[in-house]
Amino acid sequence: MNTENFPQPIKQEPITPKQLYLTRRKFLEAAGILTASTILAACLGSDPASPSGSPTSGTDIMTRKDLATSFNNFYEFGTSKSSVAERAKDFQMQPWQVEVGGLVRYPRIFSMEELLDNFTQEERIYRMRCVEAWSMVLPWAGFPLAQLLEVVEPLPEAKFVGFQSVYRPEEMPGQVGLEFPWPYLEGLRLDEAQHPLTLLAMGLYAEPLTPQNGGPIRLVVPWKYGFKSAKALVKITLQADQPVTFWNAIAPQEYGFYANVNPAVDHPRWSQSEERRIGEIGSRATQLFNGYEEVAPLYEGMDLSVNF
Ligand SMILES: Nc1nc2c(c(=O)[nH]1)N[C@H]1C(S)=C(S)[C@@H](COP(=O)(O)O)O[C@H]1N2
Ligand SMILES: [Mo]
Question: Are 256 and 242 within 8 A, CB to CB?
Fold first, then answer.
């Protein structure tokens, strides 16, 4: 059954972990290492589960795969969203490794194969809200970052987690042509990084992540603006101080460290109260924390218009 061309409503149910469908074998097949002998049935979208059980305003329809894989922000491949897929198509995702270190008891380098073998993939269908006031609904495959952090054991001094995207100017024209402080960096407070909604994703639409969507592995933080969800991760560092982050370093008055989705806190140059859902006509109301209100306790006592 091929459902990918039809929008699917998201059911308001708690997540049930799905079978491990993005296997090491499948990753290697996608990289051309093994010969694909079977085709995975594209039925996954037919029975989506809401990961958080949060109520949403309006019906959330899963974004069409062709839209989500052809309209991308990934400045390493330039600023034109519609050109990223073509420019990234030969990006080398194999071999790949992620270095996890800093203030941890057991610093370690994980190969993609080790990550696929040791962490059970779940499907998580999340809303994704870009700071530019457009949004999508995407079916990720991944595992909670908290599980990886548990393995390396953060030391008591660790208060933040820094994320580094790959620096490969020979394959990434934006790193040559755009005068930005490469590599792309992001960061979370440790408790945000440990929140069960925070995902390391290796798949999308039941397939390994495409280069344009941040393959082979990226961060997904669904209650924050999309720029927090760094793509093509190579390094995760536990640290005592707040990490320097890419957009905050470029324009701190426009892009805060927290970057929580918040309809009441406008961007200096545009309103954040509404968003355009890609594939839909018209606009819809933006929700506080992108509708994932279970994260609210993380920010108790904080002024979200100051810590934007
Ligand atoms: N390394 C890196 N990660 C990045 C970006 C980027 O330019 N470079 N863009 C961010 C922005 S602004 C958004 S909205 C999302 C887009 O993810 P998608 O293309 O999978 O929808 O990726 C985020 N992660
Ligand atoms: Mo974005």
Answer: no
